[in-house]
Specification:
10 strands, disordered N terminus, alpha/beta, ABC transporter transmembrane region fold, elongated, disordered C terminus, 4-stranded antiparallel beta sheet
């Protein structure tokens, strides 16, 4: 088992790995994408058949011209043959246009479906997947690999059908023209299997390596050419270093491309030599037959020579098509590798959709590790490849069973005693949270307080189900989150993080992302509540101002207020936020704090608190340390205990003390 197994390994390639040939299951799965287009495919194949058969007519016309029209001085036949020679390419050309249109529509449609399916699957992957995967590598799968798959659909498969018809038809005609020469021609056919046997698997491995290297290069470009990456490169003066790194990766891609071209050239050379051998054998054998008085006409010899090219040409193409299909299906294989990655956060069948929630939040014995659990023995027994094994198995602990009543929490079944463990998780595991239990009543404000690395951010990630707990239960209004529809969670939970992300679009478009049907009046009201309307109205283009890549045309405070306005527009019942403002100027901080106080009114709020005013306003303060809930209560109650909270208050929160810097680590 390779190190770092599981879903992470799907982006790695071992040059020494001896991969098997493309399986029939892969071919069937790729062809299954053509089912919605069967009508067009049938019409396309019919046109290919007609075009191919028409293409076989010219040698017969030439034979008739040489053997009959010219010797018999038949002007009428000569005229008809001339018209036929003109009509064949004309009709073939027109039918070819229609066939090409159908082929393109089928190919583009299949690739659109494949790309959309891959994009949909990626958006169902958990946050854990994206924190461990380079964006550039995913973009390579969506772009380069899908285009490679398109080549198989719209090019190779069509060529295989065309060349197969041409080969069989030419062989039938050749047998009727002169069976003895035909037997000589087909005697060399087994030799065409040699180059495919020798080079097919190696070429497929080189193509896969080239795709992997391209993905790595794309990942580096994505990291260094986005705004944040480019800024970091400039600030540290590392442009020359990054260019050198890029040159190294580009050189590896170059070498893989040269290796592929070199192997393809050898393949074509071998096939060409075999075709030449077959032609020599036919001419030598035909010459012997003529010398011995065989009754060949000149027209027959000319036609047979033309059909000999129609035999060896398609045969060479079919030999090459086997390799083309194998290398093109590598693209399907790489796309399917991603699409086969299990979805960690799945919506259960029959998940409950809540139209409204009260906002009663409860954590019951919740433990969580960012390291996904593994069961190597089980995986080996099931024969799963390292590529498609993924995910978080909860350290071997399954989630508690739900009732049939929309996932309502029930008394634990005695058949599942390990599912809600009362004991502490093993200390050897890197637990971010350990046996966490608390509740937030509807409309309450809960402040999360604790030192860096205590698990505060992890708690805020679990509530909107960005991750599932390793063990224990998180519920809203008594419903286990795992029994609720994802649409319910996204509709009733709003989140504002420190790192605000805005699309490279207008302010209006970024706000409408929360509620596409929002009216201009609703947008302005949300922005007014977030203390950002006056700023937006003062811009030359107002709400139609483009914010730039990741919102970099706005300041940090302006981006945060836009994000707050976006959540206000969404109007969630439960609010999760990190109120850190230490990196902002005092005016922006005051505006944001005022907006946050306004948005939290009447909602259940879970806040990573960095300000004393938020802590004093909290209905309950949750004090975390090393992933454990060590204290909870009001400000006065916790100060009286003289524990961790009192120490944090003295060092971080008490007026006159230096405010602690924001820390986003969980």
């Amino acid at each position: 088992m390779p190190n770092g197994g599981g879903w992470r390994s799907f982006l790695r390639y071992d040059e020494e790995q001896d991969r098997p040939e493309i399986s029939r299951a892969l071919v069937r799965r790729a062809l299954a994408y053509g089912r919605p287009y069967l009508g067009r495919i049938a019409a396309m194949l019919l046109l290919i058949l007609v075009v191919t058969l028409l293409g076989l007519a010219p040698p017969l016309l030439v034979r008739d011209l040489i053997d009959r029209a010219l010797p018999e001085r038949d002007f009428h036949r000569l005229t008809l043959l001339a018209l036929g020679m003109l009509a064949v390419p004309l009709v073939n050309g027109l039918l070819g246009v229609a066939q090409r249109y159908l082929g393109a529509s089928v190919g583009e449609g299949i690739i659109c479906d494949l790309r959309t399916g891959l994009f949909d699957h990626l958006h169902r992957m958990s946050l854990r997947f994206f924190t461990h995967t380079k964006t550039g590598e995913l973009l390579s799968r969506l772009n380069n690999d899908v285009i490679g798959a398109q080549r198989a659909v719209s090019g190779t498969i069509v060529d295989v059908f065309t060349n197969s018809i041409t080969l069989v038809s030419a062989l039938v005609i050749m047998l009727r023209l002169e069976w003895r020469l035909t037997l000589l021609a087909i005697a060399v056919l087994p030799l065409f299997l040699i180059p495919a046997r020798l080079l097919g698997r190696r070429l497929r491995a080189v193509v896969r390596q080239q795709m992997t290297l391209n993905a790595e290069m794309n990942a580096m470009m994505d990291e260094t050419l986005n705004v944040s990456g480019a800024l970091l490169v400039k600030l540290f003066g590392r442009a020359a270093l990054e260019v050198a790194r890029f040159r190294g990766r580009a050189d590896r891609v170059r070498r893989a491309g040269v290796r592929q071209a070199f192997m393809m050239r050898w393949f074509f050379l071998t096939v060409s030599l075999i075709s030449a051998v077959g032609t020599v054998v036919v001419f030598w054998g035909g010459g012997l037959l003529v010398l011995r008085g065989a009754g060949f006409t000149i027209g027959t010899i000319v036609a047979f020579t033309a059909y000999l090219g129609m035999l060896y040409g398609p045969l060479s193409a079919l030999t090459n098509a086997r390799m083309d299909l194998a290398t093109s299906l590598v693209s399907f294989e790489r796309v399917f590798e991603v699409m086969d990655l299990p979805v960690e956060i799945e919506e259960r069948a029959g998940a409950l959709t809540l139209k409204s929630v009260r906002g009663h939040v409860r954590f019951s014995g919740v433990s969580f590790s960012y390291r996904p659990g593994k069961n190597e023995t089980e995986a080996a027994a099931e024969g799963l490849s390292d590529v498609v094994r993924f995910g978080h198995r909860g350290g071997g602990m399954a989630p508690p069973p739900l009732s049939q009543e929309g996932g309502k929490l029930q008394t634990p079944d005695p058949q599942f005693p390990e599912e809600t463990p009362a004991h502490e998780p093993p200390a050897a595991e890197p637990w971010a949270l350990r046996d966490l239990s608390f509740e937030i009543k509807p409309g309450q404000l809960a402040a999360l307080v604790g030192p860096s690395g205590a698990g505060k951010t992890t708690v805020t990630y679990l509530l909107p189900r960005l991750y599932d707990p390793t063990s224990g239960v998180i519920s809203i209004d008594g419903h286990d989150l795992r029994g609720l529809a994802m649409s319910t969670l996204s509709a009733h939970i709003g989140m504002v993080t420190q790192e605000t992300f805005l699309f490279n679009d207008t302010i209006r478009a970024n706000l409408l992302y929360a509620r596409p049907d929002a009216t201009p009046a609703a947008i302005e009201a949300a922005c007014t509540a977030a203390n950002i309307h006056a700023f937006i109205a003062g811009l030359p283009e107002g709400y139609d101002t483009v914010v730039g890549n990741r919102g970099y045309r706005l300041s940090g405070g302006e981006k945060q207020r836009v994000a707050i306005a976006r959540v206000i527009l969404k109007d969630p019942r439960i609010l999760v936020l990190d109120e850190a403002t230490s990196s902002l100027d005092s005016q922006s901080e005051a505006l944001i704090q005022e907006a946050l106080e306004r948005i939290m009114k009447g909602r259940t709020s879970l806040v990573i608190a960095h300000r004393l005013s938020t802590i004093l306003a909290a209905d309950v303060i949750l004090v975390l340390e090393a992933g454990r809930l060590v204290e909870q209560g009001t400000h006065v109650e916790l100060l009286a205990k003289g524990g961790l909270y009192a120490a944090l208050y003295e060092t971080q929160f008490r007026p006159g003390r230096a405010a602690a810097g924001s820390d986003r680590r969980p």
